[in-house]
Amino acid sequence: MAEPTVRTRQLGGTLRRAREAGGRKVDDVASALGWPASKLSRIEKGSLGVKPADLEALLDECGVTDAAQRDVLHRIARHGRQRGWWQTYRDTISPAYADLISLEDGAKSMRTHETTLIPGLLQTAAYARATIEAIRMDTQPEDVDALVSVRMARQSVLSRREPLELWAVIHEAALRPRIRNHPEIMREQLQTLLDRQRLPHVSVQVLPLDAPPHVGMSGGFAVLGFPETSDLDVVLVESLTSALYVEDTAEVSRYGSAFERLRAAALPFDESADLIERLKDKIS
Q1: Per CATH, is 6-81 categorized as 1.10.260.40?
Q2: Confidence band, pLDDT 50/70/90 cuts, at residue 13
Q3: Please, where in the chain does CATH 3.30.870 lie?
């Protein structure tokens, strides 16, 4: 069975809450629709997608009459059925990574805090290759090629008609690594960072090495915001071997507050750009 995506879980959770708000049981609603109870249960758990006609019938049966809410749920359902370009790489990328790419594709904004790496949406191909080879220790060369291609393709969200609004707070430590025998890689990466932050929808701030203790010391994260409603925002927290998606509204709000604190603790935009420029000029 395919692993539920974040969006199908969100859709299922919203439908479950709508059913419970009306005091209805799974068996009752399923029977009224002529469905097996297992079908509705799987939809609510996010393990089964829902067709437009079935969604309409389910919303009617659960008493969801608000036109805006119904439209949002239909859009989420359509997004969950989409087959994106990343499906071509399904043998190389993990389901969690495919989920991230799908979320980026549908998101309006991303607020990201990075402690040791340049954010993936701002990386050069050479930097991406060097870091992928270092982090994914047992990856075969052909898979590295594919992962670099995926990372570069992800960046199309910054050049689409309605581009993703990206705000990155990057710790200064992420700007300092040197690629052995290839100083030009980091120099090019820092210049690319300067170029990208000139885009109207890209904001880059640097958290300096001498910053006082701050909430970001617990690690990096990304908050993805969606145009429908803030209730559907998602947080991604990554580690070496896994990715955790935080979907609970209260927890997502805490991460949003944490990002605001990091933004306030980081250098202003002009000072951040000046620091990146100085670090780039020191590379020889």
Answers
A1: yes
A2: confident
A3: 95-282
